[in-house]
Prior knowledge:
This protein is an alpha/beta fold. The chain has 2 domains: 151 residues, HAD superfamily/HAD-like (Rossmann fold, 3-Layer(aba) Sandwich); 59 residues. Helices cover 41% and strands 15% of the residues. The protein has 10 helices and 8 strands. The strands form 2 sheets. Strands 5-4-1-6-7-8 form a 6-stranded parallel β-sheet, sandwiched between helices. Strands 2-3 form a two-stranded antiparallel sheet. Helix 8 links the parallel strand 6 and strand 7.
Amino acid sequence: MIKSPSYESNDKKCIIFDLDGTLVDHFVAITQSIHHVQNILTLPISTKNEVITAVGGGIELTLERLIGKKRVTVALPLFKEHIEKNLLKGLFALPGANWLLENLYASGKKIAVLTNKYGPHSRAILDHLELSKYITANFGTGDTPYRKPHPKFTEHLLSTIKASPQDSLFIGDSPFDYASANALSIPCHMVTTGSHTAKQLKLEPRASGYHKDLYELGNHCFNLQLPDLTRSN
């Protein structure tokens, strides 16, 4: 699942993370908000797995995949109203997120988040999980005219934190993350903790590596000693 150890990632000064499926699991709130929309519009109810598979590219595209393009205009405000009230429901940091961010921060890395989630929600989520203390910048939909994988979205982030593509590494869980990184020739490592399986992610064979979780990624990419998980996660 991973290529040979690549500790050259330690030379990268800026580490860019996706949010959903990479650092956090927000699928309970997303699923329930989509169910809310489907109930109001008297549509078939999607399973949680169907929702997870549809996530990626922003909520408009997720809704389009699940309920059809013609209904998105009506569905979007219903979704936004519901998730605004239930944003933190079922939310949790993925295994290894705090461990990895803490270690990268301690080593002097600039850590950033680039997500197609609504920007204020992304920041509220990391504030709630007490992960914002490690983050130099956190940009999402609505913060700029762009979204992943548009290169200007990533360029805006890099300009804000005074980093270059050559000094950066991208970590994500979907082809949108790979495309964002590839557009600026940024190395990209993928984790299979989100909306795409290892088989689906390996359709992008030029990614630098594929990892089952953030622990494996931290050990493989940054030579971090794995914690004793029998004591603490």
